[in-house]
Structures are given as structure tokens and as C-alpha cells.
């Protein structure tokens, strides 16, 4: 995703949306598929040259290397799906 973003701005954002929307297992050939068309997600198709998106620049590398503590998460009373963060909407 980050490499696609570095090549073409809207396509990197589209890859993030495609990945988080994907249902089922992600097979070994997933990374080799073509990047989705940014128009599918209402993203810009013209590249303005900026590369300052916090998710795809500085956070992509650090977040993909973070090691979750699954035992601590299982023991916590933690709501899923952002339900605990939006005020019950």
C-alpha cells in the first residue's frame, strides 16, 4: 500500500480501503493483484504530488510491525467495532 501510495497518491488510499473491505482469507497472491481504481472509492484520480498522508507515510510501517498482546486483549473489557469510542451513536 505504501509503495503504491508513493507511486500514485489515490491508489494507495484505494488499497487501504480494498484491504479493510476484503472478506475472507488473504492469500499469498493478494499483494500481486493490480491496485484498485481510486474512482471506485471516490478518491482523487489526479496525483497532486503530495505525500503527507499520516496513515500511509509515517504510520504504515510502524503499525504493521506492532506486536499485539492477545492475552491482555482477551482479558480486557474492551468493546469492538469502535463502539466504545463514538458515544453510542
Report on this model:
With about 90 residues, this protein is mainly α. The two termini are about 30 Å apart. It is built from four helices and no strands. The longest helix is centred in the first third of the chain and has 13 residues, at about 10-20.
Topology:
Elements (H helix, E strand, L loop, with lengths): L1 H6 L1 H13 L33 H10 L5 H6 L14
Which descriptors would you attach to this protein?
mainly alpha, single chain, 89 residues
| Integer count of domains | 1
Major sheet description: none
Gross morphology: globular
Structural class: mainly alpha
List low-pLDDT spans. Answer: none
Instruction: Calculate the terminal CA-CA distance, rounded to whole Å.
Output: 31 Å
Give the helix level as a range of percent.
25-40%
According to DSSP, the number of beta strands is 0
Q: Overall mean pLDDT score?
A: 77
Tally of individual helices = 4
User: How big a fraction of the residues is strand?
Assistant: under 5%
What is Rg?
Answer: 16 Å
Summary, kept brief:
The chain is mainly alpha-helical.
